[in-house]
Amino acid sequence: MLFAEAFRSLRASASTTLAATMTVLIGMFLLGLFIALGTWVVSWSDHVKKEVIVKVYFCTPMSCGYEATPAQINAVAAKLNADPHVKTFDFVSEQEALKRMRKRLPEVFKVGLPSNPFPASEEVEPKRAEYADAIYKSFTPRPKGVETVNYGQKTAKRIISVAKVIESIFLLAIVILLVASTLLIANTIRLSIFSRRREIEVMKLVGATNWFVRGPFMLEGLITGAVGSLLAVILLLLGKELALPRILGHINGGSDVSAIPFSLNALALVLVGLLLGAAGSGLTLRRFLRV
Amino acid sequence: MNPPQTLTPPLEIEQPPPSSGPGSMIVFEGVTKEYEHHIHALDDVSFVIEKGDFVFVVGASGSGKSTLVRLLLKEIEPTDGRIIVGGRDLTRLKRSKVPLLRRNVGCVFQDFKLLPTRTAAENVAYALKVQGEARTAIRRKVPEVLNLVGLSHKMNSYPDELSGGEQQRVSIARAFVNHPPLLVCDEPTGNLDPDTSVGIMQLLYRINRSGTTVLMVTHDREMVDKMRRRVLALEEGRLMRDERRGGYASE
Predict the structure, then answer these.
(1) Least C-beta-crowded within 10 Å: which of A109, A216, A256, B142?
(2) Per-residue pLDDT tens for B76-110?
């Protein structure tokens, strides 16, 4: 009975129904796009932040005039172990440092070096990129055997602040989009209800309860919301499968960079679409039910 | 009959003062309706309509006739006074019970108020559906009442395929299909030509004879004079006349 009434009015006002469905479709498509992009960017900035590493260089005869003793090195390791800001740390020996450098700049090493100029170091990964500075400061004044500490302060700071800006821009965009599509959908539904306010008046005059009037309208909104958001999900899926591989080939951030799982995004969109459709028509009706 | 009237007649009521009993269909007790700017649409109006009566409400535009109808359907609330319809005190009736009231008060309007996307039969059926009437009962009652109003051959026509008189018959069928104890008609012949109006009046008269109280707001002077039923005359929100067998104008 309820379904029959809802489908009947969907058919009777096909053009407004189409308009409402398209509005939901556009709103949900943009929202889905931004959720995917936003979560991808956040994940990318996390990835970039992981590359912020604090390096603790130990003394060599060349730099301090004496070699750091194993006891001094162990003391630094113990200190890092106790530091709550530290996620992991890794000891890099002089030989290891030389090997890495040789790999990175092979042409320099063609000349050959008389001795190994590279110091041993601890590579410290902070729990969060923002903690790098705290770890850095905990090494001033320098403990015995530590020559210098460095985390590419300028670069790291820039990475952190850029990531922060990008994250907040995307969050803001998602909120704005959510509000905008809510208003847009509510407005479209209001138009479709407004064109039928006479019908509502008649219903009330023959003794229909508010819920009897509201039921078919809300179901109609629900159907509109469901169809619109499902279409948006299909479009997004097509975009993801067809367009994304071509774009992503150029900006591969790393294996651990990924957007929110598509199924989760799709679920969110359909739920938001349903809610907007039903609540939009239910709330808009309130004005017209006071007959 | 009445004594000769002066130019500014004093409020004169033939009826005994309103006293409601178990046989009363409508009771107005000192009802005042004030819109903004202190305009009195109705000013201290009191009357009693017994079950089974046929009553005309006459008056110029703006005399408060439509306000009276809207008050009866609890579309609006009186500023002061008490309205009792079928034993229900409307001023104390909860908003959630208004649909129940309207199912017991059939209403017919000048502009028919039919749903344009539904056929005559569907329009009538809608009033039953609203009450949660069973499908089988709807299928039985709708042709019955459309037959009563003389439209059994146009059951599946849409309102815009029907003449004004036919549309009004559909709207009367819709109002009467529940067999409500009270039928309120707001200028039902206002948009119709005189011949069609007579048909509508005969239909309302038949409905009245079956026991339904009919309250009819009208401008149709000829009809009121011919029928010689009870007349309530409103003038600027005041009840100026209440005659058992009155005419459109005071004599």
Answers:
(1) A256
(2) 999 999 999 998 899 899 988 899 999 999 999 99
Query: Which residue does chain B place closest to A213, by CA atoms?
Result: B130
CA B109 → CA A101, B151, B175, B184, distances in Å?
94, 18, 10, 9
Using only C-alpha atoms, chain B has a radius of gyration, in whole angstroms, of: 18
Instruction: Look up the pTM and report it.
Output: 0.67
Whether the Cβ atoms of residue B41 and residue B96 lie closer than 8 Å to each other: no
Geometric angle at alpha carbon A3, from A196 and B123, rounded to 5°? 50
Position B9 scores a pLDDT of 45
Chain B residue with minimum CA distance to A199: B115
For residue A215, the chain B residue with the least C-alpha distance is B130
State the Cα–Cα distance between residues B49 and B172, nearest whole angstrom.
21
Is B102 in the A-facing interface, judged by CB distances under 8 Å?
yes
Residue identified by tokens 């008050």 is B71
A87, A125 contact by CB (below 8 A) = yes
User: Does residue B78 have a cis peptide bond before it, meaning omega lies within 30 degrees of 0?
Assistant: no
What ipTM does the predicted assembly reach? 0.78
Measured between beta carbons, which residues in chain B are less than 8 angstroms from residue A212?
Answer: 99, 130
Residues A127, B81: Cα–Cα separation, whole Å: 76
Chain B nearest-CA distance from A202, in A, is 6
